[in-house]
Protein backbone atom coordinates (compact mmCIF):
# COMPACT_ATOMS: atom_id res chain seq x y z
CA UNK A 1 0.00 0.00 0.00
CA UNK A 2 2.94 2.33 -0.55
CA UNK A 3 1.90 5.70 -1.84
CA UNK A 4 5.35 7.14 -2.18
CA UNK A 5 6.07 7.06 -5.87
CA UNK A 6 2.69 7.64 -7.40
CA UNK A 7 1.46 11.02 -8.48
CA UNK A 8 -2.24 11.69 -8.53
CA UNK A 9 -3.82 12.06 -11.91
CA UNK A 10 -4.43 15.61 -12.99
CA UNK A 11 -7.94 16.67 -12.18
CA UNK A 12 -8.10 18.72 -15.38
CA UNK A 13 -8.04 15.52 -17.42
CA UNK A 14 -11.13 14.72 -19.43
CA UNK A 15 -12.80 16.03 -22.52
CA UNK A 16 -15.46 18.28 -21.07
CA UNK A 17 -14.36 19.13 -17.56
CA UNK A 18 -17.44 21.06 -16.52
CA UNK A 19 -19.71 18.04 -16.83
CA UNK A 20 -19.64 15.33 -14.22
CA UNK A 21 -18.26 12.01 -15.39
CA UNK A 22 -21.66 10.59 -16.23
CA UNK A 23 -23.49 12.80 -18.70
CA UNK A 24 -27.26 13.08 -18.38
CA UNK A 25 -29.43 11.06 -20.72
CA UNK A 26 -30.81 13.49 -23.27
CA UNK A 27 -34.01 13.51 -25.27
CA UNK A 28 -37.67 12.85 -24.82
CA UNK A 29 -37.14 9.22 -24.04
CA UNK A 30 -35.48 10.10 -20.76
CA UNK A 31 -38.52 9.67 -18.52
CA UNK A 32 -39.38 6.30 -20.00
CA UNK A 33 -35.79 5.11 -19.73
CA UNK A 34 -35.72 6.38 -16.15
CA UNK A 35 -38.80 4.47 -15.06
CA UNK A 36 -37.57 1.27 -16.67
CA UNK A 37 -34.19 1.64 -14.99
CA UNK A 38 -35.82 2.35 -11.62
CA UNK A 39 -38.10 -0.68 -12.04
CA UNK A 40 -35.16 -2.87 -12.86
CA UNK A 41 -33.32 -1.79 -9.71
CA UNK A 42 -36.44 -2.26 -7.58
CA UNK A 43 -36.88 -5.73 -9.11
CA UNK A 44 -33.33 -6.53 -8.05
CA UNK A 45 -33.92 -5.51 -4.44
CA UNK A 46 -37.45 -6.94 -4.20
CA UNK A 47 -36.39 -10.31 -2.80
CA UNK A 48 -34.45 -8.57 -0.05
CA UNK A 49 -37.38 -6.29 0.81
CA UNK A 50 -39.90 -9.12 0.77
CA UNK A 51 -37.82 -11.64 2.69
CA UNK A 52 -36.57 -9.97 5.81
CA UNK A 53 -37.49 -6.30 5.90
CA UNK A 54 -39.21 -6.38 9.25
CA UNK A 55 -36.55 -8.45 11.00
CA UNK A 56 -33.75 -6.34 9.55
CA UNK A 57 -35.35 -3.03 10.42
CA UNK A 58 -36.28 -4.09 13.94
CA UNK A 59 -32.72 -5.13 14.67
CA UNK A 60 -30.86 -2.24 13.07
CA UNK A 61 -30.34 -0.47 16.36
CA UNK A 62 -27.03 0.91 17.44
CA UNK A 63 -25.86 3.44 19.96
CA UNK A 64 -25.79 6.96 18.58
CA UNK A 65 -22.62 8.65 17.49
CA UNK A 66 -21.89 12.31 17.21
CA UNK B 1 -8.51 32.19 -1.50
CA UNK B 2 -7.32 28.88 -0.15
CA UNK B 3 -9.02 26.65 2.37
CA UNK B 4 -8.59 23.17 3.83
CA UNK B 5 -11.66 20.97 4.03
CA UNK B 6 -12.39 17.41 5.07
CA UNK B 7 -15.30 15.05 5.78
CA UNK B 8 -15.74 12.59 8.67
CA UNK B 9 -18.25 9.82 8.11
CA UNK B 10 -19.68 7.52 10.76
CA UNK B 11 -21.14 4.33 9.31
CA UNK B 12 -23.95 2.26 10.81
CA UNK B 13 -23.62 -1.50 11.32
CA UNK B 14 -26.51 -3.83 10.59
CA UNK B 15 -26.95 -7.58 10.29
CA UNK B 16 -29.10 -9.98 8.33
CA UNK B 17 -29.57 -13.01 10.50
CA UNK B 18 -29.06 -16.49 9.10
CA UNK B 19 -29.85 -19.77 10.80
CA UNK B 20 -27.55 -19.06 13.72
CA UNK B 21 -27.36 -16.47 16.45
CA UNK B 22 -27.59 -12.74 15.89
CA UNK B 23 -24.36 -10.73 16.01
CA UNK B 24 -24.38 -7.31 17.64
CA UNK B 25 -22.68 -4.20 16.24
CA UNK B 26 -19.75 -4.48 18.69
CA UNK B 27 -19.01 -8.00 17.55
CA UNK B 28 -19.30 -7.11 13.86
CA UNK B 29 -17.08 -4.08 14.42
CA UNK B 30 -14.39 -6.37 15.83
CA UNK B 31 -14.53 -8.51 12.70
CA UNK B 32 -14.47 -5.39 10.51
CA UNK B 33 -11.41 -3.94 12.19
CA UNK B 34 -9.43 -7.18 12.37
CA UNK B 35 -7.41 -6.33 9.21
CA UNK B 36 -6.93 -2.77 10.48
CA UNK B 37 -5.54 -4.00 13.79
CA UNK B 38 -3.35 -6.51 11.93
CA UNK B 39 -1.98 -3.69 9.79
CA UNK B 40 -1.59 -0.96 12.36
CA UNK B 41 -1.82 -2.74 15.75
CA UNK B 42 -4.68 -0.47 16.67
CA UNK B 43 -8.29 0.20 15.72
CA UNK B 44 -7.37 3.86 15.35
CA UNK B 45 -4.94 4.40 12.48
CA UNK B 46 -3.82 6.88 9.87
CA UNK B 47 -3.52 5.41 6.39
CA UNK B 48 -1.07 5.94 3.52
CA UNK B 49 -3.70 8.13 1.84
CA UNK B 50 -3.51 10.49 4.82
CA UNK B 51 -6.96 9.60 6.18
CA UNK B 52 -7.86 8.43 9.66
CA UNK B 53 -9.78 5.20 10.13
CA UNK B 54 -11.12 4.27 13.54
CA UNK B 55 -13.91 2.90 15.65
CA UNK B 56 -15.91 5.72 17.19
CA UNK B 57 -18.42 5.99 20.03
CA UNK B 58 -21.18 3.39 19.69
CA UNK B 59 -19.07 1.00 17.55
CA UNK B 60 -19.43 3.22 14.49
CA UNK B 61 -16.61 2.73 12.02
CA UNK B 62 -15.45 6.21 11.06
CA UNK B 63 -13.41 7.45 8.15
CA UNK B 64 -12.02 10.98 8.24
CA UNK B 65 -10.62 12.15 4.92
CA UNK B 66 -7.20 13.69 4.66
CA UNK B 67 -6.96 17.48 4.44
CA UNK B 68 -7.92 18.62 0.95
CA UNK B 69 -7.53 22.05 -0.62
CA UNK B 70 -9.40 21.20 -3.81
CA UNK B 71 -12.96 19.89 -4.03
CA UNK B 72 -12.19 17.13 -6.60
CA UNK B 73 -9.61 15.72 -4.18
CA UNK B 74 -12.19 15.73 -1.39
CA UNK B 75 -14.80 13.90 -3.50
CA UNK B 76 -12.22 11.25 -4.41
CA UNK B 77 -10.91 10.91 -0.84
CA UNK B 78 -14.45 10.62 0.53
CA UNK B 79 -15.39 8.00 -2.07
CA UNK B 80 -12.15 6.17 -1.19
CA UNK B 81 -13.52 5.81 2.35
CA UNK B 82 -16.53 3.93 0.98
CA UNK B 83 -14.21 1.66 -1.01
CA UNK B 84 -12.10 0.93 2.08
CA UNK B 85 -15.20 0.20 4.16
CA UNK B 86 -16.63 -2.07 1.46
CA UNK B 87 -13.34 -3.94 1.37
CA UNK B 88 -13.31 -4.33 5.17
CA UNK B 89 -16.90 -5.54 4.99
CA UNK B 90 -16.02 -8.22 2.42
CA UNK B 91 -13.14 -9.40 4.59
CA UNK B 92 -15.33 -9.41 7.71
CA UNK B 93 -17.88 -11.53 5.88
CA UNK B 94 -15.17 -14.04 4.95
CA UNK B 95 -13.92 -14.09 8.54
CA UNK B 96 -17.45 -14.65 9.83
CA UNK B 97 -17.88 -17.59 7.49
CA UNK B 98 -14.46 -18.97 8.40
CA UNK B 99 -15.58 -18.91 12.03
CA UNK B 100 -18.63 -20.91 11.05
CA UNK B 101 -21.06 -18.02 11.51
CA UNK B 102 -23.80 -17.42 8.96
CA UNK B 103 -25.77 -14.23 8.42
CA UNK B 104 -24.59 -11.15 6.59
CA UNK B 105 -22.91 -8.01 7.95
CA UNK B 106 -23.89 -4.61 6.54
CA UNK B 107 -22.33 -1.17 6.63
CA UNK B 108 -24.87 1.57 6.12
CA UNK B 109 -23.75 5.05 5.12
CA UNK B 110 -26.75 6.85 6.57
CA UNK B 111 -27.38 8.88 9.72
CA UNK B 112 -30.15 7.14 11.65
CA UNK B 113 -30.84 3.59 12.77
CA UNK B 114 -34.30 2.06 13.29
CA UNK B 115 -34.61 3.46 16.80
CA UNK B 116 -33.75 6.94 15.59
CA UNK B 117 -30.24 6.97 17.05
CA UNK B 118 -28.22 9.42 15.01
CA UNK B 119 -24.61 9.43 13.87
CA UNK B 120 -22.92 11.96 11.75
CA UNK B 121 -21.24 13.11 8.60
CA UNK B 122 -19.16 16.03 9.74
CA UNK B 123 -17.63 18.67 7.52
CA UNK B 124 -14.51 20.50 8.58
CA UNK B 125 -13.43 23.83 7.15
CA UNK B 126 -10.32 25.77 8.05
CA UNK B 127 -11.13 29.40 8.80
CA UNK B 128 -8.85 32.30 9.65
CA UNK B 129 -8.48 33.22 13.29
CA UNK B 130 -8.76 36.89 12.29
CA UNK B 131 -12.37 36.26 11.33
CA UNK B 132 -14.89 37.11 14.04
CA UNK B 133 -16.34 33.66 14.81
CA UNK B 134 -19.68 34.99 16.03
CA UNK B 135 -20.18 36.96 12.82
CA UNK B 136 -19.11 33.97 10.75
CA UNK B 137 -21.55 31.58 12.40
CA UNK B 138 -24.39 34.09 12.31
CA UNK B 139 -24.07 34.38 8.51
CA UNK B 140 -23.55 30.65 8.03
CA UNK B 141 -26.32 29.35 10.29
CA UNK B 142 -29.40 30.31 8.22
CA UNK B 143 -27.71 28.70 5.23
CA UNK B 144 -27.09 25.46 7.13
CA UNK B 145 -30.67 25.38 8.40
CA UNK B 146 -31.95 25.49 4.80
CA UNK B 147 -29.15 23.66 2.91
CA UNK B 148 -31.04 20.36 3.37
CA UNK B 149 -33.36 21.46 0.55
CA UNK B 150 -30.32 21.36 -1.75
CA UNK B 151 -28.53 18.28 -0.44
CA UNK B 152 -30.60 16.34 2.13
CA UNK B 153 -30.38 12.54 2.02
CA UNK B 154 -34.17 12.16 2.07
CA UNK B 155 -35.91 10.48 5.00
CA UNK B 156 -39.27 9.15 6.11
CA UNK B 157 -40.09 11.24 9.14
CA UNK B 158 -43.15 12.03 11.27
CA UNK B 159 -45.26 14.80 9.83
CA UNK B 160 -45.72 16.45 13.20
CA UNK B 161 -42.97 18.46 14.80
CA UNK B 162 -42.50 17.80 18.50
CA UNK B 163 -43.88 20.76 20.36
CA UNK B 164 -41.23 20.43 23.01
CA UNK B 165 -37.93 21.67 21.66
CA UNK B 166 -35.89 20.76 24.72
CA UNK B 167 -33.13 18.22 24.09
CA UNK B 168 -34.67 15.53 26.31
CA UNK B 169 -33.89 12.72 23.90
CA UNK B 170 -31.53 14.68 21.75
CA UNK B 171 -29.63 11.69 20.45
CA UNK B 172 -32.76 10.12 19.09
CA UNK B 173 -34.81 11.02 16.06
CA UNK B 174 -38.27 9.59 15.66
CA UNK B 175 -37.86 6.43 13.62
CA UNK B 176 -39.83 5.39 10.60
CA UNK B 177 -41.27 1.91 10.34
CA UNK B 178 -43.58 0.15 12.70
CA UNK B 179 -41.04 -0.94 15.32
CA UNK B 180 -40.85 2.32 17.14
CA UNK B 181 -39.54 2.61 20.64
CA UNK B 182 -40.00 6.38 20.71
CA UNK B 183 -43.30 8.05 21.52
CA UNK B 184 -45.60 8.33 18.49
CA UNK B 185 -46.45 11.72 17.08
CA UNK B 186 -49.67 12.74 15.42
CA UNK B 187 -50.02 13.16 11.68
CA UNK B 188 -48.41 10.03 10.26
CA UNK B 189 -45.25 9.91 8.21
CA UNK B 190 -44.01 12.06 5.35
CA UNK B 191 -41.14 11.88 2.93
CA UNK B 192 -38.85 14.66 4.11
CA UNK B 193 -35.42 16.07 3.32
CA UNK B 194 -33.36 14.92 6.30
CA UNK B 195 -33.72 12.92 9.50
CA UNK B 196 -30.77 14.75 10.97
CA UNK B 197 -32.76 17.94 11.45
CA UNK B 198 -34.77 16.42 14.29
CA UNK B 199 -31.64 15.74 16.37
CA UNK B 200 -30.36 19.31 16.20
CA UNK B 201 -30.95 21.33 19.35
CA UNK B 202 -28.74 24.38 19.15
CA UNK B 203 -27.17 26.67 16.60
CA UNK B 204 -23.62 26.79 17.87
CA UNK B 205 -22.20 25.01 20.92
CA UNK B 206 -19.41 22.71 21.99
CA UNK B 207 -21.63 19.71 22.75
CA UNK B 208 -21.80 16.81 20.31
CA UNK B 209 -24.14 14.05 21.40
CA UNK B 210 -26.04 15.42 24.37
CA UNK B 211 -27.43 18.66 22.95
CA UNK B 212 -26.24 18.43 19.40
CA UNK B 213 -25.60 21.75 17.63
CA UNK B 214 -25.60 22.61 13.92
CA UNK B 215 -22.08 24.01 14.26
CA UNK B 216 -19.77 22.50 16.83
CA UNK B 217 -17.68 25.25 18.38
CA UNK B 218 -15.01 23.02 19.91
CA UNK B 219 -11.81 24.81 19.00
CA UNK B 220 -9.41 22.16 17.72
CA UNK B 221 -7.56 23.80 14.85
CA UNK B 222 -5.15 20.90 14.12
CA UNK B 223 -2.93 23.69 12.77
CA UNK B 224 -1.21 26.88 13.86
CA UNK B 225 -3.77 28.02 16.43
CA UNK B 226 -2.74 31.65 16.14
CA UNK B 227 -3.66 31.73 12.46
CA UNK B 228 -6.48 29.24 12.10
CA UNK B 229 -9.43 27.59 13.67
CA UNK B 230 -11.48 24.67 12.44
CA UNK B 231 -15.15 25.06 11.74
CA UNK B 232 -16.90 21.78 12.54
CA UNK B 233 -20.29 21.49 10.84
CA UNK B 234 -22.25 18.50 12.13
CA UNK B 235 -25.74 19.11 10.73
CA UNK B 236 -25.16 17.45 7.35
CA UNK B 237 -26.35 14.08 6.06
CA UNK B 238 -23.98 11.47 4.67
CA UNK B 239 -24.22 11.76 0.91
CA UNK B 240 -24.35 8.86 -1.52
CA UNK B 241 -24.22 10.68 -4.89
CA UNK B 242 -20.87 12.38 -5.51
CA UNK B 243 -22.75 15.30 -7.05
CA UNK B 244 -24.59 15.74 -3.73
CA UNK B 245 -21.32 15.69 -1.77
CA UNK B 246 -19.90 18.25 -4.18
CA UNK B 247 -22.82 20.63 -3.73
CA UNK B 248 -23.02 20.05 0.03
CA UNK B 249 -19.40 20.93 0.77
CA UNK B 250 -18.94 23.31 -2.16
CA UNK B 251 -21.91 25.51 -1.29
CA UNK B 252 -20.93 25.76 2.39
CA UNK B 253 -17.33 26.56 1.45
CA UNK B 254 -18.49 29.31 -0.89
CA UNK B 255 -20.63 30.83 1.87
CA UNK B 256 -17.52 30.85 4.07
CA UNK B 257 -15.63 32.52 1.22
CA UNK B 258 -18.11 35.32 0.93
CA UNK B 259 -17.90 35.90 4.67
CA UNK B 260 -14.11 35.80 4.77
CA UNK B 261 -13.62 37.97 1.70
CA UNK B 262 -15.78 40.57 3.40
CA UNK B 263 -18.65 40.59 0.90
CA UNK B 264 -21.31 42.75 2.53
CA UNK B 265 -24.35 40.59 3.21
CA UNK B 266 -27.60 41.55 4.85
CA UNK B 267 -28.45 40.08 8.25
CA UNK B 268 -30.32 36.85 7.51
CA UNK B 269 -30.35 35.51 11.08
CA UNK B 270 -33.41 33.43 11.86
CA UNK B 271 -35.69 34.12 14.78
CA UNK B 272 -35.96 30.41 15.62
CA UNK B 273 -33.46 28.28 13.70
CA UNK B 274 -34.23 25.03 15.55
CA UNK B 275 -37.97 25.29 14.92
CA UNK B 276 -37.19 26.21 11.30
CA UNK B 277 -34.78 23.34 10.67
CA UNK B 278 -37.56 20.87 11.54
CA UNK B 279 -40.12 22.66 9.39
CA UNK B 280 -37.73 22.92 6.44
CA UNK B 281 -37.08 19.16 6.67
CA UNK B 282 -40.81 18.53 6.08
CA UNK B 283 -41.27 20.86 3.11
CA UNK B 284 -40.28 19.59 -0.33
CA UNK B 285 -41.59 22.76 -2.00
CA UNK B 286 -39.14 25.28 -0.53
CA UNK B 287 -42.11 27.50 0.28
CA UNK B 288 -41.84 27.32 4.07
CA UNK B 289 -41.73 30.87 5.38
CA UNK B 290 -38.81 31.76 7.61
CA UNK B 291 -39.09 34.61 10.04
CA UNK B 292 -35.85 36.51 10.28
CA UNK B 293 -34.59 38.15 13.44
CA UNK B 294 -35.06 41.45 11.60
CA UNK B 295 -38.78 40.65 11.27
CA UNK B 296 -38.48 40.09 7.51
CA UNK B 297 -40.11 36.99 6.03
CA UNK B 298 -38.50 34.86 3.31
CA UNK B 299 -39.24 31.46 1.79
CA UNK B 300 -36.52 28.81 1.89
CA UNK B 301 -36.02 29.21 -1.87
CA UNK B 302 -35.68 32.97 -1.51
CA UNK B 303 -33.14 32.65 1.28
CA UNK B 304 -31.04 30.08 -0.62
CA UNK B 305 -31.33 32.32 -3.68
CA UNK B 306 -29.73 35.23 -1.81
CA UNK B 307 -26.79 33.05 -0.76
CA UNK B 308 -26.52 31.71 -4.32
CA UNK B 309 -26.31 35.19 -5.79
CA UNK B 310 -23.45 36.11 -3.45
CA UNK B 311 -21.68 32.78 -3.97
CA UNK B 312 -21.92 33.13 -7.76
CA UNK B 313 -20.21 36.52 -7.51
CA UNK B 314 -17.37 35.05 -5.44
CA UNK B 315 -16.91 32.39 -8.14
CA UNK B 316 -17.11 34.97 -10.98
CA UNK B 317 -14.44 37.04 -9.26
CA UNK B 318 -12.21 33.94 -9.14
CA UNK B 319 -11.99 34.37 -5.39
CA UNK B 320 -13.32 30.98 -4.33
CA UNK B 321 -11.55 28.34 -2.24
CA UNK B 322 -12.67 25.24 -4.11
CA UNK B 323 -9.28 24.81 -5.78
CA UNK B 324 -10.78 24.02 -9.16
CA UNK B 325 -12.82 26.34 -11.39
CA UNK B 326 -14.80 23.53 -13.01
CA UNK B 327 -15.97 22.30 -9.61
CA UNK B 328 -16.97 25.84 -8.65
CA UNK B 329 -18.93 26.18 -11.90
CA UNK B 330 -20.68 22.87 -11.23
CA UNK B 331 -21.60 23.90 -7.68
CA UNK B 332 -23.19 27.13 -8.89
CA UNK B 333 -24.90 25.35 -11.78
CA UNK B 334 -26.43 22.57 -9.66
CA UNK B 335 -27.41 25.02 -6.90
CA UNK B 336 -29.22 27.11 -9.54
CA UNK B 337 -30.92 24.14 -11.22
CA UNK B 338 -31.94 22.68 -7.85
CA UNK B 339 -33.74 25.87 -6.79
CA UNK B 340 -35.42 26.08 -10.22
CA UNK B 341 -36.48 22.44 -10.05
CA UNK B 342 -37.98 22.76 -6.57
CA UNK B 343 -39.73 26.01 -7.48
CA UNK B 344 -41.25 24.51 -10.63
CA UNK B 345 -42.20 21.26 -8.87
CA UNK B 346 -40.51 19.29 -11.66
CA UNK B 347 -37.55 17.52 -10.08
CA UNK B 348 -36.59 15.54 -13.20
CA UNK B 349 -33.74 17.95 -14.04
CA UNK B 350 -31.91 16.99 -10.84
CA UNK B 351 -33.12 13.45 -10.22
CA UNK B 352 -29.76 11.83 -10.86
CA UNK B 353 -27.74 14.30 -8.82
CA UNK B 354 -29.35 14.97 -5.45
CA UNK B 355 -29.78 12.19 -2.86
CA UNK B 356 -33.25 13.13 -1.60
CA UNK B 357 -34.57 13.38 -5.16
CA UNK B 358 -32.97 10.10 -6.29
CA UNK B 359 -34.33 8.31 -3.22
CA UNK B 360 -37.77 9.88 -3.60
CA UNK B 361 -38.03 8.50 -7.11
CA UNK B 362 -37.34 4.99 -5.77
CA UNK B 363 -39.74 5.34 -2.83
CA UNK B 364 -42.53 6.82 -4.98
CA UNK B 365 -42.21 4.08 -7.55
CA UNK B 366 -42.12 1.38 -4.89
CA UNK B 367 -45.27 2.76 -3.25
CA UNK B 368 -46.94 2.82 -6.65
CA UNK B 369 -45.95 -0.75 -7.46
CA UNK B 370 -46.60 -2.35 -4.09
CA UNK B 371 -49.44 -0.32 -2.60
CA UNK B 372 -47.42 -0.24 0.61
CA UNK B 373 -47.65 2.80 2.88
CA UNK B 374 -44.74 4.86 4.14
CA UNK B 375 -44.89 3.02 7.49
CA UNK B 376 -44.36 -0.35 5.79
CA UNK B 377 -41.09 -2.00 6.96
CA UNK B 378 -40.25 -2.62 3.31
CA UNK B 379 -40.00 1.15 2.81
CA UNK B 380 -37.67 1.45 5.79
CA UNK B 381 -35.64 -1.45 4.39
CA UNK B 382 -35.55 0.27 0.97
CA UNK B 383 -34.27 3.44 2.63
CA UNK B 384 -31.46 1.46 4.30
CA UNK B 385 -30.67 -0.32 1.02
CA UNK B 386 -30.10 3.08 -0.61
CA UNK B 387 -27.24 3.64 1.88
CA UNK B 388 -26.07 0.03 2.21
CA UNK B 389 -22.46 -0.61 1.13
CA UNK B 390 -23.00 -4.38 1.06
CA UNK B 391 -22.57 -5.47 -2.57
CA UNK B 392 -25.54 -7.90 -2.66
CA UNK B 393 -28.10 -5.72 -0.92
CA UNK B 394 -26.87 -2.19 -1.59
CA UNK B 395 -28.47 -0.27 -4.42
CA UNK B 396 -26.10 2.57 -5.04
CA UNK B 397 -23.54 0.95 -7.36
CA UNK B 398 -26.49 -0.23 -9.46
CA UNK B 399 -27.96 3.27 -9.54
CA UNK B 400 -24.60 4.61 -10.70
CA UNK B 401 -24.22 1.90 -13.33
CA UNK B 402 -27.73 2.61 -14.65
CA UNK B 403 -27.02 6.33 -14.92
CA UNK B 404 -29.52 7.11 -12.14
CA UNK B 405 -26.84 8.58 -9.88
CA UNK B 406 -24.13 10.70 -11.41
CA UNK B 407 -20.48 10.66 -10.51
CA UNK B 408 -17.98 13.49 -10.28
CA UNK B 409 -14.78 11.47 -10.38
CA UNK B 410 -13.87 8.33 -12.26
CA UNK B 411 -13.50 4.96 -10.54
CA UNK B 412 -9.77 5.22 -11.37
CA UNK B 413 -9.50 8.50 -9.47
CA UNK B 414 -11.23 6.89 -6.50
CA UNK B 415 -8.90 3.86 -6.61
CA UNK B 416 -5.94 6.21 -6.69
CA UNK B 417 -7.30 8.06 -3.64
CA UNK B 418 -7.47 4.79 -1.70
CA UNK B 419 -3.68 4.56 -1.97
CA UNK B 420 -2.53 8.14 -2.37
CA UNK B 421 -3.01 11.30 -0.31
CA UNK B 422 -3.98 14.63 -1.84
CA UNK B 423 -0.72 15.95 -3.34
CA UNK B 424 -1.09 19.58 -2.34
CA UNK B 425 -1.62 19.55 1.44
CA UNK B 426 0.07 18.35 4.63
CA UNK B 427 -1.64 14.99 4.02
CA UNK B 428 0.97 14.29 1.32
CA UNK B 429 3.71 14.32 3.98
CA UNK B 430 1.71 12.22 6.44
CA UNK B 431 0.79 9.70 3.74
CA UNK B 432 4.42 9.35 2.64
CA UNK B 433 5.57 8.90 6.21
CA UNK B 434 2.91 6.32 7.10
CA UNK B 435 3.57 4.30 3.95
CA UNK B 436 7.35 4.44 4.33
CA UNK B 437 7.42 3.74 8.07
CA UNK B 438 5.09 0.80 7.57
CA UNK B 439 7.19 -0.49 4.70
CA UNK B 440 10.33 -0.22 6.84
CA UNK B 441 8.61 -2.07 9.67
CA UNK B 442 9.11 0.81 12.10
CA UNK B 443 6.72 1.63 14.95
CA UNK B 444 5.31 5.11 14.60
CA UNK B 445 2.74 7.45 16.06
CA UNK B 446 0.88 9.92 13.92
CA UNK B 447 -1.90 12.44 14.38
CA UNK B 448 -3.17 15.31 12.22
CA UNK B 449 -0.20 17.50 13.19
CA UNK B 450 2.60 15.20 14.39
CA UNK B 451 4.82 12.47 12.99
CA UNK B 452 6.93 10.37 15.36
CA UNK B 453 8.96 7.19 15.35
CA UNK B 454 8.30 5.40 18.62
CA UNK B 455 11.99 4.87 19.33
CA UNK B 456 12.66 8.57 18.77
CA UNK B 457 9.70 10.08 20.58
CA UNK B 458 11.59 13.23 21.46
CA UNK B 459 12.06 14.02 17.76
CA UNK B 460 8.48 14.64 16.74
CA UNK B 461 8.00 16.48 13.48
CA UNK B 462 5.32 19.12 13.88
CA UNK B 463 3.31 20.05 10.77
CA UNK B 464 1.54 23.25 11.73
CA UNK B 465 0.84 24.44 8.20
CA UNK B 466 -1.86 22.28 6.62
CA UNK B 467 -1.22 23.93 3.23
CA UNK B 468 2.43 22.81 3.11
CA UNK B 469 2.97 19.56 1.22
CA UNK B 470 6.69 19.53 1.95
CA UNK B 471 8.67 19.71 5.16
CA UNK B 472 12.45 19.32 5.52
CA UNK B 473 12.37 17.63 8.92
CA UNK B 474 9.74 15.19 7.73
CA UNK B 475 11.80 14.37 4.64
CA UNK B 476 14.84 13.74 6.86
CA UNK B 477 12.75 11.50 9.11
CA UNK B 478 11.47 9.56 6.09
CA UNK B 479 14.94 9.34 4.52
CA UNK B 480 16.34 7.91 7.75
CA UNK B 481 13.69 5.20 8.09
CA UNK B 482 15.86 2.43 6.73
CA UNK B 483 18.65 3.20 9.16
CA UNK B 484 18.51 2.00 12.74
CA UNK B 485 18.14 4.85 15.26
CA UNK B 486 21.42 6.57 15.99
CA UNK B 487 22.67 6.10 19.56
CA UNK B 488 23.16 9.88 19.61
CA UNK B 489 19.67 10.75 18.46
CA UNK B 490 18.64 11.58 22.01
UniProtKB/TrEMBL annotation, chain A:
Keywords, comma-separated and alphabetical: Isopeptide bond, Ubl conjugation pathway
Highest taxon, organism lineage: Bacteria
UniProt feature coiled coil, ranges: none
Keyword Protein transport listed: no
Region of interest (Disordered), residue spans: 1-32
HAMAP family documented for this protein: Pup
Protein family according to the UniProt entry: Belongs to the prokaryotic ubiquitin-like protein family.
Descriptive protein name: Prokaryotic ubiquitin-like protein Pup
Encoding gene, per UniProt annotation: pup
From TrEMBL, chain B:
Top EC category: ligase
Keyword annotations of the record: ATP-binding, Ligase, Magnesium, Metal-binding, Nucleotide-binding, Ubl conjugation pathway
Residues binding Mg(2+), per UniProt: 8, 54, 62
Superkingdom, natural source: Bacteria
Assigned EC number: 6.3.1.19
GO MF terms held by the record: ligase activity
PANTHER family: PUP DEAMIDASE/DEPUPYLASE (PTHR42307), PUP--PROTEIN LIGASE (PTHR42307:SF3)
Similarity remark: Belongs to the Pup ligase/Pup deamidase family. Pup-conjugating enzyme subfamily.
NCBIfam families for this protein: pupylate_PafA
Name of the protein in question: Pup--protein ligase
Source organism phylogeny: Bacteria, Bacillati, Actinomycetota, Actinomycetes, Micrococcales
Gene: pafA
